[in-house]
Amino acid sequence: MNRPSESFVLPARILHWLMAAMIVTMLFVGVGMVASVSERHDWLVRLHKPLGVAILLLAVVRLAVRMRHPPPPLPAELPEMQKLAAHISHWLLYALMFALPLVGWAMLSAGGYPVMLSRSMRLPAIFPADAVAFAVLRHLHAWLAGVLLVVFVGHVGAALYHGLVRRDGVLGSMLGRGRR
Ligand code: HEM
Ligand code: HEM
Fold first, then answer.
1. Residue from 125, 55, 66, 118 nearest 90 by CA
2. CB of 20 closer than 6 A to ligand 2?
């Protein structure tokens, strides 16, 4: 394993910001999809599935990058409770990056719907067709998206607190400027 440095490594930073944009887009697209059943909004559904599956694939790459390159340590003077909150929320975000696409995919499988990534590319079912499981997974998908939104808002709040109030370089480490 490499020694922790002052910034996240470049691949980790690229993946973080790329996936942040993709995940926030997915939250809006998801809500837009369920808020309207108009055929004119079909494109939102066609975008939601491949983008969600791309997030799942990138999450695998990102986890591998994180295992190989540990993140820079948090500032030593940061209270232990805040360090713990940072670790828990980061692992929760990782868990959600995997769980949301997998539950979305499993939900469509349980409903017997084909998961099309393009007109001709169809993913295999990952859950047996079952009406009750479809209903449960559909609720679970919406509930997990709600949890993601709440953790994301807390995460951005914490990033701004570090960047604007504490000015301890934590935000800089994700922007490539190092801890101080
Ligand atoms: C990070 C990835 C994902 C995020 C953040 C996300 C987010 C959302 C959100 C916010 C909704 C609206 C929920 C509601 O208010 O009822 C939604 C609905 C939906 N998502 Fe996802 N999603 C993701 C991945 C996926 C994937 C990979 C699939 C399928 C392959 C999928 C399929 C669906 C479907 C079919 C709905 C509509 C469910 C309904 O009719 O109630 N999602 N998603
Ligand atoms: C767009 C606004 C965002 C800002 C300003 C932001 C900022 C940051 C900062 C400053 C860090 C470094 C924290 C540290 O060193 O402990 C970080 C790490 C992290 N962020 Fe974000 N972030 C944003 C969006 C997101 C989103 C949407 C996700 C995923 C859902 C996410 C997931 C993570 C994770 C998992 C880490 C831990 C480091 C890693 O292993 O990648 N972030 N973020």
1. 66
2. yes
